[in-house]
Write a structure and sequence with these properties.
It is a single chain. The protein is of the alpha/beta class and 350 residues long. It has two domains: 128 residues, no CATH class; 168 residues, IlvD/EDD C-terminal domain-like (Glucose Oxidase, domain 1, 3-Layer(bba) Sandwich), CATH 3.50.30.80. Helix 9 packs parallel to helix 11. The radius of gyration is 21 Å and the shape is globular.
Length: 350
């Protein structure tokens, strides 16, 4: 989790790390744990989509062990941990720091690209002076009581206020199928997505679609002139290429009874993402021309029935449906989508 924060890595790690912890018999990290780590660890790597450099330059600048050298100096690593080499992490980093391989890779970056390795993987002081901020923020609110995630550094700076906070309030456009959302994004006429909208894509989590990756939507918005003025909220996931104000992993997902499954077209949604404090919220704050607080919005959502069009993808395979049901009993998306046998057995006995 520490290395991920220093790199500003993919939000997919929110699935992998809890699953690894569960398999190892360790406590699975909570949203609070992720927030705490990302507040404590500075981002040191300036690669796409957060910065200008392609990922291969991070490799040539030294990759994971180079970042770990900086983290070690900050006292953020457990150096006695064993690695796959059979040596402790501290011993491996000692070797890396003076190795010919490290020297050769970094020299190749200088020679081939004319780029200083220190401009790709930075020490904390340089990173701070260049304005690098932690990558990931975990908004909650009445639409995501379990949490959600956004790669906040991927928000276009021109729509972020001077205090480092992204603020957006707009009407919800709700879709339960990705293809319908894509069609609305590509439609410049009536009924299409327009600047100021909040695109809400639901039924795309594990139960609805096997937790699909919705790159098509984020990519389409990135290359449209008005895309930076549209926010996306979804129970699906993103890959490392997510861009814009795109909030995923909303929990609980719509088909697991999450309040996001009660949002209606035209509802007023407020999104706040503080890129400095790594705090955020996504809330229903209005309906039918009436505005109200986030607390009142929670009560409105609780009183509503689920949308009648909530449904899993009709083409979802039976084994995926079974996996989705079992992982939900085992903790759901924020639990790593794992088979927690004790929890599953307890659910079957109820």
């Amino acid at each position: 989790m520490v290395v991920h924060a220093a790199f500003g890595g993919s939000t997919n790690l929110l699935l992998h790390t809890p699953a690894i912890a569960h398999a190892a018999g360790l406590r699975r990290p909570t949203v609070e744990d992720w927030i705490a780590v990302n507040r404590r660890v500075p981002r040191l790597v300036d690669t796409l989509p957060n910065g200008p450099h392609p990922t291969v330059r991070a490799f040539l600048a030294g990759g994971v062990p180079e970042v770990m050298l900086h983290l070690r100096r900050l006292g953020l690593l457990e150096e006695s941990a064993l690695t796959v080499s059979g040596e402790t992490l501290g011993r491996v980093l000692d070797w890396w720091e003076t190795s010919e391989r490290r020297h050769g890779l970094r020299e190749r970056l200088r020679r081939a690209d004319g780029v200083a390795p220190e401009d790709v993987i930075m020490d904390p002081d340089r990173a701070r002076s260049r304005g690098l901020t932690s990558t990931v923020t975990f908004p909650r609110g009445n639409l995501a009581p379990e949490g959600s995630v956004i790669k906040s550094t991927a928000i276009d700076p021109s729509v972020v206020d001077a205090d480092g906070v992204y603020r957006k309030t707009g009407p919800a456009r709700v879709f339960v199928r990705e293809k319908d959302a894509i069609a609305a994004i590509k439609n410049p006429g009536a009924g299409g997505i327009k600047a100021g909208d909040v695109l809400v894509l639901i039924c795309r989590g594990p139960i609805g679609a096997g937790m699909e990756e919705i790159y098509q939507i984020t990519a389409a918005l990135k290359h449209l002139s008005f895309g930076k003025h549209v926010a996306v909220i979804t129970d699906a996931r993103f890959s490392g290429v997510s861009t814009g104000a795109c909030i995923g992993h909303v929990g609980p997902e719509a088909l697991a009874g999450g309040p996001i499954g009660r949002v209606r077209d035209g509802d007023t949604i407020r999104v706040v993402v503080d890129r400095n404090r790594l705090e955020g919220s996504i809330d229903l704050v209005g309906e039918g021309g009436r505005e109200f607080s986030a607390d009142d919005g929670a009560r409105v959502l609780a009183a509503r029935p689920a949308r009648p069009d909530l449904s899993a993808d009709p083409d979802i395979a039976d084994d995926t449906r079974l996996w989705a049901a079992l992982q939900q009993a085992g903790g759901g998306t924020w639990g790593g989508c794992v088979y927690d046998v004790d929890a599953i057995v307890a659910a079957l006995r109820r």
